[in-house]
Amino acid sequence: MAFWLFKSEPDSWSWDQQVARGDAGEEWSGVRNYQARNMMRAMKIGDRGFFYHSNIGKEIVGIVEVCAESAQDSTTDDPRWDCVRLRAVCPLPRPVSLQECKADPRLQDMALVKTSRLSVQPVTEAEWEIICALGQLR
What we know:
6-stranded mixed sheet, ph1033 like fold, globular, alpha+beta
């Protein structure tokens, strides 16, 4: 299993909206960055990710799971763009802020800290465990 981070502006697509989609999940559509698209193409069913509220809140608020591998993004006819489908797994009992991640020396190399512009980012297993602990997820 691989780990990822998915960023969304909560006024466009929030954690609550993701949860409301249930087990069917929702396409992680609208990504128009080749690097992020290529990461989605590498994802497998069952991979886990953090759901991050960007701009408003700037915090990791939940865990999502890839429930369908990369396919054509339904928001465009352009064949260059595809996306995965994600379902909500659980909220973090305690959201983990970007400021907290930046302050933790164990996360200094995390993509969220170093390359914050990408909407889809890889997360190492060690980073995953640290964030889950900070978020009080056992």
